[in-house]
Amino acid sequence: MELPENIAGLIKAQNDSDSAAFADYFTSHATVSDEGSSYSGRDQIKEWIQAAAQKYTMQVTPIDFNQNGSKAKLTVEVSGSFPGSPAVMAYHLELDGNAISGLQITG
């Protein structure tokens, strides 16, 4: 499956545990919702993904991707040191050009 460059880069940064590169794919005022919590702005997003990567030692494998205008859904298999691993999750993305302005993770 071929992903847009920004989405492929986001996945690579997550798998490389590169929280700074991961956060750089977001707009400065982006929001992320995951596990009942929300994070706003690149600094909070960077802290969130860094903590999650350290806690769960995750790897993400894309399964499916659909985009309709500024909305996209990326389905991934996430494996790591968490109960129920591996798990299939959906990344609901709001895009602003090549940047991500919103991400909601459901599973």
Automatic annotation (TrEMBL):
- Read off the Pfam families from this record: SnoaL_2
Where in this chain does the record put each SnoaL-like domain? 10-87
User: Would you tell me the protein name for this molecule?
Assistant: SnoaL-like domain-containing protein
Organism of provenance: Dyadobacter soli
